[in-house]
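Narrative of activities, Objective 1.

The group set out to show that a structural description can be obtained from nothing but a protein's sequence at a throughput compatible with the screening campaign. Below is one input-output pair from the validation batch, recorded exactly as produced.
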Amino acid sequence: MLDREGPVPVYKQVAEMIRARIEAGDLGLGEAVPSETELEVEYGIARTTARRVARELREQGLAYTVQGEGTFVGEPGTPRPEDQIPVYQQIAADIRRQIQAGELRPNRRVPSEKELMQKHGVAKATVRQAMAFLRDRGWVFTVSYRGTYVSPAENWPEATK
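Output recorded for this entry:
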């Protein structure tokens, strides 16, 4: 229960409750800390207070934030459980594995947006995010009005050659 009248700021009280959940093992390394919206609902706090909770956890070295994805228990780079990896990254990892296994070959098309949407049960925006993720890392390239293709092996990230 929060003491809204006491000397300890509400954000510090909530951060302490999250800390206790981490120490009790209810939130493990790499797992998501409750989102700002979840904190607002659970503790009846304002969005700015919820943001301050995440900042406090980061300052205490208990969590790190990935913009657009959330705040997670541990130090930056801590692996996340498979079910907490964003869907677009899961799709990208699946395609990368197919490329590395030789199932998708250099200079050949990757499955279309429509095929990937059906296979993974996601929206077009999610598929496009996965393709952008792969493109940024050199796994694929896109030709306007033609499609997305597997990059030549020399363009793949160094660690995988």
